[in-house]
Amino acid sequence: AAKAAGKNRFLRFHPDMMTALVRRTDLEAGLQVSVARSEISVEFQPIVSPRMGQVVTFEALARWDRGDQRVPPGLFIPLAERSGLINEIGAEVMGQSLKHLATWLGADLSRSLSINVSGVQLQEPDFAEQVLQLAEKYGVGPYQLVLEVTESVFFDADCNVIKQLSQLRAAGARVALDDFGTGYSSLGRLQELPVDILKIDRTFVSMVHTGNERLPILSSMINMAHSLGLTVTAEGIETEEQANYLIALECDSLQGYLFSHPEPAGRFEQALKTSGQALDALSSRAG
Ligand code: C2E
Ligand code: MG
Ligand code: MG
Ligand code: MG
Hints:
By secondary structure, this protein is of the alpha/beta class. It has 11 helices and 10 strands.
């Protein structure tokens, strides 16, 4: 029976799976080379506050250009998590982002940097220490940092994860719960998590369109988050209708292609030098 099962398993290994495996191995080897050559770069996407009329945060997003082909992070980040390369990529993204933030922002405390952090990085016992040291090296205050994590980092209830995030929060950094609503945790569980900001996933935002005027789930999320003392950001705002809808629900900040696509640092540097007015005009698109 074992033999039959074994044979069966072999037969089930379809040629397509082989192709996928080869492709994955190939991508993984390529990623390793690119990381070693420091070919991972970062783009930034502004997050605007309609109430303050300005860009309040820049989210750093990792980019991998493989020759003239850009591999999406949705593909290479999970790969890097499996191989452990995510620790190096994370450090690279953090270093590049802080360097930019320090040169752009100087002492402008009204703006912050938001960085995506993988659960794998949070397994490191000195993760928080490394982040705080890097911030200090570039003269950036911890309160100018936001660490974005997804609900999944809390699944295995690893106490190191909580410890690292708590240490960062104690130093003044904030933690954002990314892609909220796509995972399994309930609104009720929010109360227990060490987070300051709720980022509503864009699947909910994309439900806002003409003919779909009532979305109780969005108002519930925002009201619940506010009653817990959290700040709310809506991701994936593509239309003015969506922006206005979320502003009416008192969502604190908005992010999406309507305001700006993610862009290389250079695109924002000039705007920030001229007192940020060109950037702040982005938030006038809302309303
Ligand atoms: P995320 O953190 O939720 O980032 C937002 C994603 O939505 C980005 O995709 C961004 O380009 C995209 N986006 C922004 N506005 C809009 C919009 O209006 N419409 C649509 N359709 N999309 C929008 P991107 O850059 O492809 O990144 C995908 C995911 O990869 C990120 O999702 C994040 O989970 C992960 N990621 C990216 N960089 C890093 C990193 O440095 N470290 C880690 N651990 N993960 C990263
Ligand atoms: Mg994010
Ligand atoms: Mg997100
Ligand atoms: Mg996402």
